[in-house]
Write a structure and sequence with these properties.
Helix content is about 50%, strand content about 15%. The chain is α/β, with parallel strands linked by helices and about 950 residues long. It has a 7-stranded parallel beta sheet with strand order 9-15-8-16-17-7-18, with helices on one face. It has a 5-stranded mixed beta sheet with strand order 20-21-22-23-25. It has a 4-stranded parallel beta sheet with strand order 2-1-5-6.
């Protein structure tokens, strides 16, 4: 294979010899220029001066006096003009999206030399089109007429009014922006292009700084580029070489040929290139479907390995192989998938700064400053960004102990807002957690943090031998690049003094960072080439591996955002999506033209917006050009077993027996009712949580969860009844408490402070906590109202603790504990009351149901209150016990009654004397405890799966 650029270099050196050094060569990109220089040096075989190498944009900039304007500065200039001429109250934040779109539109208008005044006219009558657009073709006029005939009349349509309102100021915006930039000696790219063409039109004899200029490998042009090429051709100093040798590109039915005839006729080549050698072997094109995005990157490894084994790829000279990434997000996975034998790699794309670790930390810092909470004497930050910063590896490397201490404190005390004073325990934290009020303070704030991080990284590396110097250099490079970007933005804003919020500054900086790539050092002319689609222009490779060959990614489906409607774009000869389609079709078919082995990898998944469809280009090859390639199709299938996970059961080994023994007499732990219920729900869950003591890591609860709601409620009820322990409670007394709003509020706030905020300082509830407090108040009043119906009664105790060493028939003595929410005496019976925050059942059929592990809706709350009653009777055998459950969600039922109901026959019997049921309960209860400590009964999984819904161990047992 003779590469196209090699062919051009050979033809020029053969025709002009060393004089070629005086010429200027223009390429689609700089990478093509480097390859051309390499081919030229190979042909010459000895040192010569290199010809001048330019891109099309470089050429225009050489011919213009303007400097390229900074985009951010232009956005602020545009906003300033827009505010002045429209009188809008729109903020810069709101304008930013439109501003970006308008700059792109103005760039197109100038590059395609459109008449901006005519384009942005407000057509009041369709007759104006015939009168005012006679300089356009009939086809163009028809497109314009099509838009305005559909648009008019405007009538009462608000969207049309909004469009016209903006449309009417566009020409003024365009003109004034150009004037302001002109005064500063600045211009956007399209303005530079138009300026050059206008000057050349006015001065046909304008002296140019080129002896001869050769355009190589171009294809689609804007009007301004076309006019420049025509001008240079007319002056007889230009020559042109088009890469249209592929029969597929020459096919008139193929969109890739869209610009071909025009270019070859208008801009012919002066020299004849050597005919390309006929390849007797048909090129192989293989489409490989992979059900994963990263899986595509991983599949590169076996492809490269096979190329190495078959000697199609030589590790020292891998320049004949290219990995093309239409989706640049796959760069890192691709880099990790290259075989070790390939030592030299050249990444032409660079690594996006927004994907770096420092960018991640800055995102957290932006979020931190967006979530400042201020009051008169207090400044604090929302916990989420604080924890994210404290967990970031830069921070843990520099201030690990302090970060850990802070994290633990925040979680332990459930701090939603953390005051600045609490955070100032390390010099770096003083810098990061400093509140920023004005956008003008942000550059110095961020630069100070970045400088400190960079210094600290090097200090850490000197202290710790395990830290790689290379990784520190890479990290430092990203930090320096971020620092330079802030400086660049600072310079752009210095002379503007815009009105904007801190939030807007962060948005702008983030937008700027997304466009910054940190270049990789590599071997541009020796290593394996990793590049984006546009970098492949004019380059040829033997082996091509193209990833993300999905419809919608290559070619890209997304049309550029524009304020100029499609029909007006077509009418004024501005680029449309068809133009884009033609350009990308050319890139693809030209790229594969000289390749011998082509691998097209695509994602087969059909999730969300992904269609899993292969690119149209492969379908075109398969159906229109089947005789041009050896076409192969494969699917990379992952073996996924669908068999059920094996059931887990834990045998009670001597080690586990030791752990169980701590719950027997003489041990230091006790079994609670909830632990026994856990065993009945799932013995394996009991083993993990109770025996092994495994638990979820503590997290901050932004809202009051069900368990915390219950804790707060329990405390309030305990405190309200505390003054009446051992006393007679009357209905009047309870109604008085119900109506005392300040008392209820005080107790609720105290309970929040103690249980939720975990502090002694009581404060007023706000936001969602206030609403939760109001819900609690409603439930508390309802309980007091229900209690009033039971009066008079004696309130015995709240949260009564039971601790007992309980003897089993086997002789084992188990340490048990329990907390009875409330004990009172009503009409000669002692009530054992349990509060439950949810909704539940009070009815059971048979006693064995309370202990039935296979029963889906086992009445576990009844088991718990019966256990409390059973243990209470050990110390109070003469009491008549009436177990009851206050389900808060059931309080508002018209027939609410807290009594447990036995429905063994047809009738429902209230359990108002537990002693009648105690013997049967004891038998089942003892059997359950015996089973827990029986060494022959393993801890097995739940048979029902009901307990799995809320189990934290599902990832372990996989049930």
């Amino acid at each position: 294979m003779i590469p196209f650029l090699h062919n051009v270099a050979q033809a020029y050196y053969k025709a002009h010899g060393q004089s070629v050094s005086r010429f200027t060569f223009v390429f689609p990109n700089r990478r093509a220029g480097i390859f051309f220089q390499n081919y030229l040096s190979q042909i010459v075989g000895r040192p010569i001066f290199s010809p001048e190498i330019l891109t099309v944009t470089d050429l225009f900039e050489r011919l213009s006096p303007y400097k390229k304007a900074d985009r951010i500065e232009m956005l602020f200039l545009l906003y300033d003009i827009y505010k002045r001429i429209s009188g809008t109250t729109e903020t810069f934040d709101e304008f930013l999206y439109w501003g970006e779109m308008l700059l792109n539109d103005f760039d197109d208008v100038d590059k395609y030399l459109s008449d901006a005044k005519q384009l942005f006219r407000n057509i009041q009558d369709l007759k104006e089109i015939d009168a005012g657009f006679d300089f356009l073709t009939e086809e163009q006029i028809e497109a314009i007429r099509r838009f305005w005939s559909n648009f008019l009349p405007v009538g009462e349509n608000d969207k049309k009014k909004d469009f016209l309102e903006m449309w009417e100021v566009l020409f003024q915006l365009y003109t004034l922006l150009r004037e302001k930039l002109h005064k500063k000696g600045l211009a956007y790219e399209g303005m530079i292009f138009r300026d050059v063409i206008e000057k050349l039109s006015q001065d046909q004899d304008m002296k140019l700084p080129f002896e001869k200029i050769i355009f190589v490998g171009l294809n689609g042009h804007s009007k301004s580029e076309e006019k420049l090429l025509k001008f240079l051709h007319k002056k007889e100093i230009a020559d042109f070489y088009w890469d249209y040798s592929s029969p597929l590109v020459r096919d008139p039915q193929n969109k890739a040929s869209f610009f071909m005839d025009k270019n070859k006729v208008q801009f012919p080549s002066q020299l004849t290139l050597s005919p390309e050698e006929l390849n007797m072997e048909m090129p192989i094109i293989e489409a490989i479907g992979i059900p994963s995005s990263v899986g595509q990157a991983k599949h590169i490894y076996p492809i490269l390995k096979s190329l190495l084994e078959e000697k199609y790829l030589v590790p020292e000279q891998a320049v004949n192989t290219a990995l093309v990434l239409p989706d640049e997000n796959l760069l890192l996975p691709v880099l990790y998938s290259i075989p070790e034998e390939i030592g030299k790699i050249n990444v032409t794309m660079g690594y996006n700064l927004s994907n770096s670790s420092i960018s991640g930390l800055m995102e957290h810092i932006f979020e931190l400053q967006r979530n400042i909470r201020k009051s008169e004497n207090y400044t604090g930050f929302f916990y989420k960004p604080v924890l994210a910063i404290l967990n970031h590896r830069y921070i843990t490397n520099i201030a690990g102990d302090e970060a850990k201490k802070l994290r633990q404190s925040i979680v332990r005390y459930n701090k939603i807002i953390i005051s600045t004073q609490e955070l100032y325990i390390h010099p770096l934290f003083r810098l990061i957690f400093a509140p920023v009020d004005k956008w003008e303070d942000i550059p110095n704030y961020l630069k100070t943090i970045l400088a400190t991080l960079k210094t600290s990284l090097y200090t850490k590396q000197k202290e710790d031998e395990d830290v790689s110097a290379r990784s520190v250099d890479i990290e430092s490079e990203f930090i320096v690049e971020y620092y330079k970007t802030i400086n660049k933005m600072d310079d752009a804003l210095k002379n503007i003094f815009p009105e904007m919020s801190v939030e807007t500054y962060f948005k702008l900086l983030k937008k700027l960072i997304q466009g910054i790539s940190v270049p990789f050092s590599g071997e541009p002319l020796a290593g394996l080439q990793i590049m984006g689609v546009l970098e492949t222009r004019a380059l040829d490779f033997d082996n091509l591996i193209i990833l993300s060959m999905n419809e919608g990614i290559f070619p890209m489906k997304k049309a550029a955002s524009s304020f100029i409607p499609y029909n007006l774009r077509k009418g004024f000869d501005l680029p449309t999506y068809e133009h884009q389609d033609s350009i990308f079709a050319y890139h693809f078919y030209r790229m594969i033209n000289r390749a011998k082995r082509i691998y097209l990898l695509y994602d087969t998944r059909t999730e969300g917006l992904q269609s899993g469809e292969i690119s149209r280009y492969f379908n075109q090859i398969r159906h229109l050009y089947p005789n041009s390639f050896d076409i192969r199709e494969n699917l990379a299938v992952y073996k996924v077993t669908s068999s059920e996970s094996p059931s887990i059961s834990i045998q009670k080994t001597p080690q586990i027996q030791e752990k169980l023994n701590v719950f027997l007499q003489g041990g230091d732990k006790r079994l609670s009712a909830s632990a026994i219920n856990t065993y009945l729900n799932c013995p394996l869950q009991f083993y993990f949580s109770v025996v092994e003591g495994m638990a979820e890591e503590d997290e901050i609860a932004e809202i009051v969860e069900a368990s915390m709601f219950g804790t707060i409620f329990h405390s309030v009820m305990e405190w309200l009844y505390e003054p009446f322990k051992g006393k007679l409670v009357t209905a009047d007394l309870l109604h008085k408490i119900r109506k005392d709003d300040s008392l209820l509020t005080e107790k609720i706030e105290k309970s929040f402070a103690e249980n939720y905020f975990k502090t002694e300082k009581v404060k007023k509830l706000t936001g969602q906590n206030f609403l939760t407090g109001e819900v609690l108040k409603k439930y508390i009043r309802k309980v007091l109202s229900i209690d009033a119906r039971q009066t008079p009664f004696i309130y015995v105790n709240s949260e009564e603790q039971i601790k007992t060493n309980y003897s089993l028939p086997s002789g084992k003595i188990v340490s048990l504990k329990g907390y009875i929410d409330r004990v009172d005496e009503v009409k000669g019976r002692t009530r054992i009351i349990d509060y439950k925050t949810g909704r539940g059942i009070l009815v059971y059929k048979e006693m064995k149901d309370l202990f039935d592990k296979e029963m889906k809706n086992r009445p576990k709350a009844v088991m718990q209150v019966f256990m409390y009653s059973h243990l209470y009777m050990l110390d109070h055998p003469d009491k008549i016990l009436e177990p009851g459950i206050y389900y808060l969600r059931n309080l508002y039922d018209t027939k609410f009654d807290p009594d447990v109901i036995n429905k063994s026959g047809r009738e429902e019997v209230q359990v108002i004397d537990f002693s009648k049921y105690r013997t049967e309960f004891k038998a089942h209860f003892d059997a359950c405890l015996e089973e827990i400590f029986d060494l022959d009964v393993p801890f097995s999984q739940t048979p029902t799966g009901e307990a799995c819904k809320w189990c934290i161990f599902t990832n372990i047992c996989k049930k």
